[in-house]
Amino acid sequence: MHGGSDRNLHAADVSIFLGLDGTPTRKVGIEWTGIPEEMGYSYPYVVAILPRHVEVRNIQTQTLVQQIELPSARLLNQGKLLYIASATQIWRLTPYSFAVQVDQLVEKNEFEEAISLLQQIEPILLENKPHATTLQEEKMRTIRNLHAHYLFQRNEFDAALALFQELDTDPIEVIQMYPPAISGRVLKPSTPSEDGLNHNYSDYASDGPDRDPDDDRNNSNPWSTIVNPWSTPATEPRRDSLTITASTNRVPSVLSTWFNPQHDPQPTPPRELTGQVLEEAINYLIRFLTDRRGKTAKLLYQQQQQQQAAQSSGRALGAKASKEKDEREKMDRVAEVAKLVDTVLLKAYMMTNDALVGPLLRVQNSCDVEECEVLLLEKKKYKELVDLYNGKGLHRKSLELLSKLGQSNEGPLRGCMPTIMYLQRLGQEHLDIILEYSEWVLRTAPEEGMKIFIKDAMDDQFSHARVLAHLEATSADLSIIYLEHVILELGDETTEFHNKLAGAYLDKVLQEMMEGSEGAEGEGNDFPSAISESRSRLIHFLNESLHYWPAKILARLQLDGLFEERAVLLSRIGQHEQALAIYVFRLRNYRMAEEYCNRIFRDDPDNGRRMYLILLRVYLKPSTKEPPLVDAALELLSRHGAHIDAEEVLAMLPVTTRMDGLFPFFEKYVRETNKNRNMNLVVKNLLEAERLQVQEQWVYYRSRAVKITEDRMCPQCNRRIGNSVFAVFPTGAVVHYSCKEKIEKTQWKLT
After folding, report:
1. Where is the region Disordered (predicted)?
2. HSE-CB of 558 using CA atoms within 13 angstroms
């Protein structure tokens, strides 16, 4: 016996299948309940006569489909209509239509057999209608969907969810099978989904022309036995098999009531899942939802890209506008499914492994904020709730929660750091929120709170003024820290910021002086450390910065204090004599006055010589009633006399000055003068030697003669020189004057 390309070989009560080359095509053969006496094939079944009955098996699954009690049967044929004969009778086995057989198998929950039968038969044999192939595929999908539901009811969650995943089932349909703790308020859709799910199985029940009106949906046998008129009565079939009841009306499949509530106004609710069974079901649901989540996210991205492309192309009204509306509705539908998937996935994590809640919420997700918010608050998952708010852009709600928890004494979010880290992640567009919720942090932990603003993300010219105003209203010390960051680290040269930093330094110094710290302007007085530090920062900034207004700061200084700062500011506005007078007569610090002149001399020697002369004048001709400082002047002359004009010095010195005190000055001055005179002589002689050398070369080249003949060629253009203007190189080469520059450029490149 053979079916298709396979051959069936019988050995005792086992039949094996062989290929055309004689090798087995299947790992296992058909195990009959007895030793077959005769075998036949009727697509897609194999029939065997056994001693007591006839067996019908599916040739693909080898499952026993039907037993017919014909104990005296001896012979059978092969084909669509099977005839079985005994010594005295002949029976004809007439198969039911394949559609009826499929319905019967589904009705008995034999879904694998129904699927196998559908896979073996041609579509036209199932539905004699146009688009039979499509109808068969839809029916196959529906039966597999029912199979998945059946497996789920039998607690075979792994196989059920894997089948749902393979069928790309609507997540709503799967989620509805779980208790309210998971499914929530998900309602069963009133209409079938767009992808073909939730179809009524009765919609695919065959009512084609090959359906027998006498078919009974309670019969699972593929064949009925019809007694030949001239034969003896046939043996009755097994009573445990479902028989056919005559009817003239179309009888829908019983399975149609599974998805159609009108057949059963009070459907039996599914068995409640609890305990370990529920946990197992949720674990497999997580796998299904994770797969659907990726596909939904991809679909959302594709639809968004299409929508952006449509908007950029400027599609017109009419049919295109209607198409855009349909696309928007479809996109809304996908977005709703994505929201449901992520929300249920979060619930599943909460019930099985809450450590996965945080990673889910920290990435882009479509969780329903209201529903997840209630659940996370109930479980006290505050960190995860902050992640949820952050992902949805609800920064104000996040910061309200962080502020409340941060000011408590317990919990993982206590303290300022969670709020600081959250504010640091916000960009310039959220500056209003940053300023608002940084207030309590700056009051509680000022130094830590400054980390909110001292970071690269806030280094924007637009934000500096607003941030500074906010910090000034909070604390002057914080404004100083921020200004130092902006000016010293970021290199901001805005005059306003430099003025504010200088003013802030000055205010701090004055405040500390008023609080009881004794201010001393002299070199030998002790100054409290806090004020010394503040003043040193102020003086350093006044010396280093070039972008503040000295006159504006000078107007705020006291007349009887802060003389060093006044001297720096006077020097900035060009009042050098007044600045030096402060160093000499107010501070009594001659070293600082001398260093003042040295600094200017290093930058500009000519101006530095003038500064030494001004300092000498301050020493010898003070504008106040102070006596002349002859000794300090002589010290200055002994160190820097070489840079001061002797005539000006002699004119200013008192007539009572001792000559031995001027000896170091004259020595330095004479040495410097001789040095300069000798250096000038050397330079003069070098220039004269260079002039003579050039003159000698000029005479040499002038005395050379070049003979231009009619055959003399230019090496550049290879043309005769003739009567053209020419040039002669030191090597003796003669070229056209117009070719001279080209040859020079070539020589420069070579060198």
Report:
1. 183-247, 309-329
2. 13
Q: What is the pLDDT of residues 733-750, one digit of tens each?
A: 889 988 988 888 776 443
Tokens 């399975």 map to which residue? 255
d(CA 107, CA 201): 11
Q: How far apart are CA 261 and CA 427, in angstroms?
A: 54
Give the CB-side neighbour count of residue 550, counting CA atoms within 13 A. Answer: 17
Please give the Cα distance from 38 to 50 (Å, whole number). Answer: 8
Name the 3-class secondary structure at 735.
Answer: strand
> Comparing C-alpha atoms, which of 416, 409, 411, 427 is closest to residue 450?
416
Helix and strand counts by DSSP (H, E) for the chain: 30, 14
Give the pLDDT confidence of 302-353 residue by residue, as tens digits.
Answer: 877 777 776 666 554 445 666 777 778 888 888 899 999 999 999 999 999 9
Contact, 580 vs 596, CB < 8 A? yes
CA-CA distance, 117 to 56, in Å (whole number)?
14
Identify the top-confidence range among 137-141, 167-171, 325-329, 728-732: 167-171
* Contacts for 122 with CB less than 8 Å, ≥ 6 apart: none
Exposure of 212 in the CB half-sphere (CA atoms within 13 A): 18
What are the residues whose beta carbons fall under 8 Å from the beta carbon of 632, sequence distance 6 or more?
584, 590, 619
Query: Which domains occur in the chain, in start order?
Result: 1-95 (2.40.10.360), 706-750 (no CATH)
pLDDT, greater one: 443 or 26: 443
Q: How far apart are CA 423 and CA 395, in angstroms?
A: 9
DSSP 3-state assignment of 747?
helix
Gap between the Cα atoms of 177 and 198, Å rounded: 13
